[in-house]
């Protein structure tokens, strides 16, 4: 079959071709990450991450490849038609690309194109948003509730579609909303086991812990960190949002300080982005739930993207391991 007539394959379909090295393919993909580097011999090359709603893969494009200049001109977030041959490097899909063509505005507007490229949360976003607001309404402390409402009045609808990360967990549209609702569900289930934890303060901390990501991340088809995201980070940005809203709501200084501490410490370790270690019952509780849902989010996404017959996922950096994707035999 001539390459021009090759049917389009999704990333998931490509990964199912592990035993077909050298097979020609064509795909419609988003350039999610484009990093310029220099080889030991001085030649420039790109480390590129391509993706669609079913997954992503990386590959290396050297400056003698015809695709090099096209990628340079297109940049991150561009939609491209990629043609090449299936190849693997160290067990990971890393195709050999022969041709890359950027889509025009009219081609991007064709029915279904963007829907096939943008990964979204598996749960219905409207239902998640309704549930999220119910968690806010469930706060029984008036000033804490007003503080939380104040933050979301300021950040607006962006919270509904922002991803929770660039690549690690819930890294897709509505991912931040999904992650926060999952944490709130876990909080509600676990609170009866830990009577030392103030329910209103813990729930408010969960609802606000990642709000700074609305400012930290930007982009529609690919996500990158904004200027403020690079210079301050979502932990500090979230702290600023909560402090401003808490002052307006006249939340007492004791509770405001504890709420701020939850946000500043929720990343767990300074090397992971925490400003301080968790030092209150509520902060420890929220940090552990955040870590749990982040890791299980990685697990859930890997299982969704697993190919038919695939026993293990690719290595997941957040788990420092591959994931066994076959369900257990229970009979």
SSE blueprint:
Blueprint: H1 11-15, E1 24-38, E2 44-52, E3 55-62, H2 67-74, E4 79-85, E5 88-89, E6 92-93, E7 96-102, H3 105-108, H4 113-117, H5 125-137, H6 142-155, H7 158-161, H8 175-190, H9 199-208, H10 213-216, E8 217-218, E9 224-225, H11 227-231, H12 233-248, H13 253-265, H14 281-305
Description:
The chain has helices at residues 11-15, 67-74, 105-108, 113-117, 125-137, 142-155, 158-161, 175-190, 199-208, 213-216, 227-231, 233-248, 253-265, 281-305; strands spanning 24-38, 44-52, 55-62, 79-85, 88-89, 92-93, 96-102, 217-218, 224-225. With 331 residues, the chain is α+β, with helices and mostly antiparallel strands. The chain folds into 2 domains: 3-116, Nucleic acid-binding proteins (OB fold (Dihydrolipoamide Acetyltransferase, E2P), Beta Barrel), CATH 2.40.50; 125-305, no CATH class. A 5-stranded antiparallel β-sheet has the order 3-2-1-4-7. A hairpin with a 5-residue loop joins strand 1 (24-38) and strand 2 (44-52).
């Amino acid at each position: 079959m001539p390459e021009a007539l090759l049917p389009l394959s999704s990333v998931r379909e490509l990964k199912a071709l592990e035993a077909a090295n050298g097979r020609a393919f064509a795909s419609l993909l988003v350039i999610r990450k484009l990093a310029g580097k220099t080889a030991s011999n001085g030649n420039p090359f790109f480390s590129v991450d391509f993706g669609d709603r079913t997954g992503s893969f990386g590959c290396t494009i050297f400056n003698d490849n015809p695709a090099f200049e096209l990628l340079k001109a297109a940049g991150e977030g561009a939609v491209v038609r990629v043609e090449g041959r299936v190849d693997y490097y160290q067990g990971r899909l890393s195709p050999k690309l022969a041709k890359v063509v950027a889509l025009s505005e009219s081609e991007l507007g064709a029915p279904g194109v963007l829907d096939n490229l943008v990964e979204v949360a598996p749960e219905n976003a409207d239902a998640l948003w309704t549930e999220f607001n119910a968690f806010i309404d469930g706060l029984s402390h008036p000033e804490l509730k007003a503080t939380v409402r104040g933050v979301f009045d300021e950040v607006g609808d962006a919270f509904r579609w922002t991803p929770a990360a660039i690549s690690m967990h819930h890294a897709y549209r509505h991912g931040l909303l999904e992650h926060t609702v999952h944490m709130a569900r876990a909080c509600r289930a676990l609170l009866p086991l830990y009577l030392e934890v103030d329910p209103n303060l813990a729930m408010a901390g969960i609802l606000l812990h990642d709000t700074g990501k609305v400012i930290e991340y930007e982009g529609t088809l690919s996500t990158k960190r904004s200027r403020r995201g690079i210079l301050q980070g979502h932990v500090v940005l979230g702290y600023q949002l909560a402090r401003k809203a808490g002052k307006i709501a006249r939340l007492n200084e004791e509770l405001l300080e504890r709420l701020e501490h939850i946000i500043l410490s929720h990343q767990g370790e300074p090397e992971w982005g925490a400003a301080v270690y968790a030092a209150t019952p509520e902060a420890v509780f929220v940090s552990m739930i955040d870590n749990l849902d982040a890791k299980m989010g990685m697990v859930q996404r890997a299982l969704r993207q697993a190919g038919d017959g695939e026993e293990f996922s690719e290595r997941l950096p957040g788990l420092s391991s591959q994931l066994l994707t076959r369900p257990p035999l229970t009979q």
